[in-house]
Amino acid sequence: MSEAHVTMGAHTAAPMEAPPFAIPSKKLAMWLFVMADVMTFAACVAAYAFTRNATPDWPRPFHSVTAVAVMTVIMLTSGLTMLIALGAAKAGDKAGAFRWMMITAVAGIIFTLLHIRDWMGMIDQGVGLLHNPWGTAAFGASFYAITGFSLLHISIGTIALIIVAIRYQGGRYNADDIEIVSIFWQFVGLVWLFIVPVVYLMNQTPAAR
Amino acid sequence: MHDTSTHAAAHHGPPTSFIRKHVFSLDHKVIGKQYYGLGLVAVIIGMVLSWVMRIHLAWTAYPIPGLHLLSGTGAPGNVMTPEFYLQVMTMHATFMVFFVLTVVPFAAFGNFFLPIHTGAEDMPFPHFNMMSFWTTFVAFCVMLLSFFVGDGPTLGGWTQYAPLSAVGAVAGPGQGSGVIIWATSIAIFCVGQLFGALNFIPNVLDLRCKGMSMWRLPMPTWAWFITSCMGLTSFSVLMPACILLILDHVAGTSFFVASNLVINDQLQPHSGGSTLLWQHLFWFFGHPEVYIAIVPGMGIVSHVLITNMRKPMLSHRVLVYSMGALAVLSYMVYGHHMFVSGMNPFSSLVFSFPTLLITIPSTVIVLVWIGSLYGAKLRINAASLFALGFISMFITGGVSGFFLAQPSIQILLHATYFVVAHFHFTMAIAALFGIFSGTYFWFPKMWGRMMNDNLGKLHFWLTFIGVYAIFMPMHYLGLAGNVRRYQAFVVDYMQPLVGVHQFITIAALFTGAVQLIFIYNFIHSRFWGEPAPENPWQGTSLEWSVPSPPPHDNFGGKHPVVYHDPYQYGVQSSTGDYLMQDSPEQVKGAQDEP
Questions:
Q1: Which of residues 343-372 of B touch A (CB under 8 A)?
Q2: Which residue of B has its CA nearest to A131?
Q3: Under 8 Å CB-to-CB from A81, ≥6 apart: which residues?
Q4: Residue B583 in 3-state DSSP?
């Protein structure tokens, strides 16, 4: 494991100043990407909040929190298994790290399937981008835009988890790479924790709240 | 680690094939030059478009030869239709703001010099860096395409205000496919800038050579670092906004269109969106973008002036802190573009305060420059003249900013030529002067040959006079109530102002023609200029310690070690009145940051 590989394998420009935050470039780049992505999600959520506030007849159609609660539990659990995988990788337990990575990826797949099921249910009820049974069209458009963008992240994250796990198993990647993918995974989990209140809980029908 | 070795080898050995060397190059220097070339093409397109606009404004019925080539329907008899005028205006702004002012001072010079300034062999992620350029190039081609698709490019202005940008072809030519192409191109551009920022920031934080503490970084590198932080967090807001705009077109959503909107006597099928939302999202990006254009120029100008003054600035830290303050405040002032948008008037007050506040760091920067210039024996050459010109433009544009920052005055001046003068002086001309200053200064390092300095000085003086002749009268036009974005001035009170427009047009044609001096100088020097020595300006930062042009890995296999501040001038050393950053020599009177 050469030092060069830690810093993206591009450089052996030997006597570098010690990085001030002791963080290799690749990991720093992931943090920076997460910062940019935070801005992107913030823009989406701000746009949604703006539209919701500006619309007097905003619908509150959701009756049940069960499905969302189950998805949230799975997401939180996957965050935990990701941490266990990272801990195992740092402790040098290759088999354990691979196993827990795969468990995390499975949780990601289950979450994705539940999410698609949630969408199918919405589509069955007639919620589309342009119309829905309850009121303003902006409801459907913003619902699919925000949850869709999140789902895109979670699917990419799941694929990344599997690729990193397999390459880690094969010896091409190391614990640092697992940490980098875990930063992304915890970030998409955090995004979900923002989506649950603003998209689902705030749109519960008053009686069901 | 089997791929590490191949990867490292692929990167370390200089490329041999033409494609790897000049086209899909991983070398940050080649990528920087590619960005520079892209900017040069875009600036020529943008300038020609501005000529076409100016001629039309001054002599509305005058046919412009060849204009029909740009548009099938927009120029019958080579005279612009009002719609085509707006399309040309939009494309002028789009090419200039995105593909010149963002690309050249930041991406072109930054790519070439940032790794050399930090003492690194290359960017941390060369593949991402290559993708950054080629993504931007694709965005450029997509934007160019809009001239030839459907009924031409969008006419919505570079700000693309909703709802007219979101309802489709009913809003005018180019508002259908033109807007989709525009938004697609800009979304792609945002991705390219993200790749760039992901290289710049880790390079500054992680890849500095031994001895290069943060405070030993030269001014332009500080400016590029601050700019990439802004780019990282502002382009990532524009991108989803563009995607939502595209959805409004292709998926029929109504993010930016309110209910019951009637356009051209047709009730729009949209409902439930908000037109103000677009302005909020756009200007949250748009205002930092202004500083993305100008802050690199500030860094370049400081660098050029210090080298030519042969003494350090009064305070480097104050300059850096002020640039940082500009970056932070730039996110809080965006509402000053929306004083008349119909948002809550109290918000105008809220946005007016940070807008006045942001003049403080701007003023501090200018005062540091002027205070440092006081009593300095400035070497007069093309680079230092353009740096002085930058300061002049920035002050002129900044002073009109004081007026526009106040909602009560801004309501009168909004959307007049006063605003056109203000933003052209600050973000456009000042930034262009920064580009020229950087070009004359760094040309020897980038292309290994000297530029003709006398032609450069001539270019400066004619350009300097020219741009003041173009933009100074626009303040008067604005105060006289001349509204911008009109293609002809037929209203009674504007009729007497047409003479001023004719003067401005002549000045614009003159100033544009003067740029041929620069183009000639650039091309001639590139191939037949005098070969440049390693350190033609007796500079101190690391780019002057390597051959001109620098070798593939910048430092020829050596690992530079830095011992000093970037700007040790006015000292007595063995080399003269300066001390290179990588010189181990210790001299009396040197001021070193730890």
A1: none
A2: B253
A3: A100, A103, A104, A107
A4: coil
Average pLDDT, chain B: 91
Asked whether the beta carbons of residue A13 and residue B3 sit closer than 8 angstroms, the reply is no
Cβ-defined contact of B120 to A51 (cutoff 8 Å): no
Asked whether residue A54 is assigned to any structural domain, the reply reads: no
Q: If you average pLDDT over residues B496-501, what whole number do you get?
A: 94
Contacts of B244 in chain A (CB under 8 A): 47, 145
Is A149 a domain residue?
yes
Å between A138 CA and nearest CA of chain B: 5
All residues of chain A having their beta carbon less than 8 Å from the beta carbon of residue B276 are 50
Nearest-CA distance A172 → chain B (Å): 6
Quote the ipTM score.
0.88
Are B555 and B121 a contacting pair, CB within 8 Å? yes
**How many distinct structural domains can be found in chain A?**
1
Which of helix, strand or coil describes residue B10?
Answer: helix
Please determine, for residue B12, whether its predicted confidence score (pLDDT) is greater than 70: no
The predicted pLDDT at position B130 comes to 95
Q: Cβ distance A175 to A86 under 8 Å?
A: yes
Nearest CA in chain A to B554: A13
For residue A191, give its domain range: 66-209
* DSSP 8-state class, residue B578: E
The residues of chain A scoring below 50 in pLDDT are: 1-17, 208-209
Tell me the residue type at A164. V
**Three-state SS letters, B467-526:** HHHHHHHHHHHHHCCCECCCCCCCCHHHHHHHHHHHHHHHHHHHHHHHHHHHHHHHHHHH
Assess whether the region B23-273 and the region B295-531 belong to the same CATH fold: yes
Q: How far apart are CA B284 and CA B275, in angstroms?
A: 15
Residue A53 resides in a domain: no
Residue A167 included in any domain:
yes
**In the predicted structure, residue B116 carries a pLDDT above the cut 80:** yes
pLDDT at residue number A86 = 96
Across the interface, do B11 and A138 touch by the CB < 8 Å criterion?
no
Top-tier CATH class for B295-531: mainly alpha
d(CA B131, nearest CA chain A) in Å: 15
Residue in chain A lying closest to B271 (CA): A137
What CATH number does the domain located at B23-273 have?
1.20.210.10
CATH of the domain at A209: 1.20.120.80
Which chain B residue lies closest to A7 (C-alpha atoms)? B124
Encode pLDDT of B398-444 as tens digits: 999 989 988 889 989 999 999 999 999 999 999 999 999 999 999 99
Any idea where the domains of chain B sit in the sequence? 23-273, 295-531
A65-116 pLDDT tens trace: 899 999 999 999 999 999 999 999 999 999 999 999 999 999 999 999 999 9
The tokens describing B283, both together, are: 């200007």
CB of B404 within 8 Å of a chain A CB? The answer is: no
